[in-house]
Amino acid sequence: MIHELKVLSEGDIPALTEGMQASLEDVPEGFGLAYDPGQAQQHMLADGFGRRHTYLRISLVEQCNLRCRYCMPDEDLAWTPDEQLLTDDEIIRLARLFVEAGVTKIRLTGGEPLLRQGVEQIAEAIGVLPGLETLALTTNGLLLPKKFERLQQAGVNLLNLSLDTLRADRFEQITQRRGFELVMRAIDEAMDRGFDPVKVNCVVMRGVNEDELVDFVAWTEHQPIEVRFIEFMPFDGNRWDDTRLVSFQEMRDRIEAVYPLERRTDGPNETSKTYQVPGFRGRVGFITSMTEHFCEGCNRLRLTADGNLKVCLFGRVEVSLRDAIRAGATDETLREVIGAAVGRKHARHAGMYALAEMENRPMITIGG
Ligand SMILES: C[S@@+](CC[C@H](N)C(=O)[O-])C[C@H]1O[C@@H](n2cnc3c(N)ncnc32)[C@H](O)[C@@H]1O
Ligand code: SF4
What we know:
Elements: E1 4-5, H1 13-16, H2 37-41, E2 55-59, H3 88-101, E3 105-109, H4 119-127, E4 134-139, H5 144-154, E5 156-162, H6 168-175, H7 180-192, E6 198-204, H8 213-219, E7 225-231, H9 248-256, E8 262-263, E9 272-276, E10 283-287, E11 300-303, E12 308-310, E13 318-320, H10 321-326, H11 331-343, H12 352-357
Parallel strand pairs: 1-13, 2-3, 2-11, 3-4, 4-5, 5-6, 6-7, 7-10
Antiparallel strand pairs: 8-9, 9-10, 11-12, 12-13
The structure holds S-adenosylmethionine and iron/sulfur cluster (SF4).
Iron/sulfur cluster binds next to loops.
């Protein structure tokens, strides 16, 4: 069971974040930020380490039309009943509160976000929030062509498509469904529509697709594609073990045996380490959550489809904003609840072996 703390009434706020205490003992050696709980009190989106959270990822739906083995648990998941998921209005209200407080980037994710009825209307309502600079979408692409026009009109201006192999037969083995051609078509359409770069998320797993690293890099020669190689991460039910993890270092070594990689500058809160083969149009990024965490620059918050605020991808503790809303919380109360949860964010997540042992949600219900 996820450790879920619910709001029953406005008076319950102090109890709400019980168990989420960040503290001095929490600061690992060599961590570059100092802990001062006073910093958290200054702003709803600040934590005790002075990190300002300007990026919110919203999961719109838990279900998916693919069954990627590294994401979806083998056993049948008990999906949250629809009435316990955030409604469109609740999502839009929370998005507004976050943007008013200073969030400049929102990503819509899932499960598969395009399975959500009304995703277009949600994107339209969020896309017009004053102050929002980036409206991003992470999708497996299967339903994208049908919805592309409206989503782009709504303001979606950053796109991550997930694709772990360039071979149709392997796609079926990894995702347990057909759809390779559809994803490739969606990527082509994204480039035609001017997305530059089109980001392609690729989870690299030993014995599954690590032999395609060089092929993916070759793909960036003439296309505005940024392939982002992601280290395989442990989540509930995904049978993670370190023999299947291909580390950042190993990925680089394998690629550099064929292509030179030049480092490119990353944005201040970028989770990806970006490289480019000299002369190539596209780029290559590495998301190294397992072997080189990037917690010091973390500016992300996550809202699950059932309305829980998750301040760390790998953190077990969640706060139900849905329950707060349904108990009649005012905007001011919601801001306090969010501020208290963010304020107590821990310095960093545990190491990969501890994470593998820890309870968390399956990735499919977090959304990346
Ligand atoms: C959970 S999916 C949700 C959005 C959408 N369905 C998609 O696949 O793009 C978001 C991202 O998380 C990544 N992901 C899922 N499970 C993962 C794992 N165990 N380790 C690393 N990345 C993972 C996926 O590859 C995908 O790029
Ligand atoms: S990675 Fe995305 S497409 Fe694959 S099962 Fe998870 S949610 Fe679905």
